Amino acid sequence: MAIIQWYPGHMEKAKREVQSQLSAVDIVIELRDARVPQSSENPMINKLINQKKHLIVLNKADLADPKATEQWLKYLKYHQGAAIAIDSKNNRDMKRLREAIKALARPIVEKWQQKGVKQKTIRLMVLGIPNVGKSTFINQLTRKKIASVGNRPGVTKGQQWIRIDEDFELLDTPGILWPKFEDQRVAERLALIGSIKDDHYYSDDILLVTLDILKTHYPEAFMAAFKLKEADMELSLPDLLLLLTKKMGLKDDYEQASDQLIQSLQKGKLGRFTFDWISDFEEETDGGSEHDE
């Protein structure tokens, strides 16, 4: 499998712009994809934001396995602090999000009040890697069509302050990837959700990895989605891909089949799946310190 690396120059520029604006920000909202809660974490963010209050938002929760999402929320709250899972297209979820932001901002507001500062707008910064749904998230939060929306990385091009209401003001930022993927599992899962442009990887490589995850963690749902028999589950991953290709009427064009299946998975057409599992990462994260509220 080819090594996946991608770090365009504009991302380094975006990183510098984020650093220059942080002093004006009260709370950082880190948007991740609920299907890959760990892989969609940008490891540079904690260093960038330093001691700023920080809310992790697992977006696209409607596409993820709800049981796995609950497990991830408990894990993230224990290890990293405040976290919430939402579908940014759901108004009730966005209301819960606003309440979570206000709760996180309460100590800041109380300090202002103690100093005699009159009503001041909480300034938010939204950070996240490409294609975790930031534009839809911002449009729903502001109740305006301000941010450009697209199911591909690189849609948000620059920063802009957006007035939400009398309580909040928000800074949109382009998605930022980090310079090098130390763990190729992370790169593969980001390719699967569309955070990496498709000209940087082979779709059949990504699909083979994904088929392995589905077979391991979702055997029954996997068989139902692809109308497979028990005997089919014993096939090697390449043979299984060829079988799916034939079932799709594409003969031996496994590359086209891979493209179509990845698109279907990205849109949730084959079911609600989570591709990151705590057991895959806990050895790496157990060495870290527990988050102090």
Give an account of the 3D structure.
- With 293 residues, the chain is of the alpha/beta class.
- The longest helix has 24 residues.
- The chain is elongated, with a radius of gyration of 20 Å.
Count of helical segments? 11
User: What percentage of residues falls in helices of 4 or more residues?
Assistant: 40-55%
Note the overall shape: elongated
State the total count of DSSP E strands.
6
* Order of SSEs: HEHEHEHEHEEHHHHHH
Q: Radius of gyration in whole Å, from Cα?
A: 20 Å
Overall average pLDDT = 84
Write a brief structural summary.
This protein is an alpha/beta fold. 44% of the residues lie in helices and 11% in strands.
Walk me through the topology.
Blueprint: H1 9-21, E1 27-33, H2 45-49, E2 53-59, H3 66-79, E3 83-85, H4 91-114, E4 122-128, H5 134-142, E5 160-163, E6 168-172, H6 184-193, H7 203-217, H8 219-226, H9 237-247, H10 254-266, H11 278-285
Parallel strand pairs: 1-2, 1-4, 2-3, 4-6
Antiparallel strand pairs: 5-6
Supply database-style keywords.
single chain, 293 residues, alpha/beta, 6-stranded mixed β-sheet, 11% strand, disordered C terminus
